[in-house]
Amino acid sequence: MTHISPAQAVRVWFFLVAATLISAWLAEHHGLAGQWTATAVIGVAAFKVRLVMLNFMELKHAPWRWRAAFEAWTAVVALLIIGVYYTSLR
Fold first, then answer.
1. Structure pTM?
2. At what angle do helices 36-51 and 6-28 cross, to 10 degrees?
3. How far apart are CA 86 and CA 39, in angstroms?
4. Which DSSP letter does residue 2 get?
């Protein structure tokens, strides 16, 4: 099994920290983009989940069925959360 290199792990970790800080900033300044802020924050969170699972839990090298199930699960959950959010606004 191929493991993530320390340099790549640090790059992914820095990206995750930056994405967290950007999401926090967007959430604090909700008025700048309105309702799209929540969608952006949820999208960033889904991408962060994907990065963690692929890089640190090594799904990147898993059989294609496991990876496809994970990719589908991530997309479906993110879309459901966004759908519930916009439904609750009505």
1. 0.84
2. 160
3. 9
4. P
Q: Write out the chain's pLDDT in tens, 90 residues.
A: 568 889 999 999 999 999 999 989 888 876 666 778 888 899 999 999 999 999 999 898 899 999 999 999 999 999 999 999 999 988
| Two structure tokens written together for 55 | 């890089």
Q: Whose structure tokens read 């997309």?
A: 75
* CB contact at 8 A, 78 and 46: yes
Check: CB of residue 37 under 8 Å from CB of residue 27. Answer: yes
Domain ranges of the chain: 36-90
Contact 75, 51 (CB under 8 A): no
Question: How many Å apart are CA 29 and CA 82, to the nearest integer?
Answer: 19
Q: Could you give the CA distance from residue 62 to residue 60 in angstroms, rounded to a whole number? A: 6
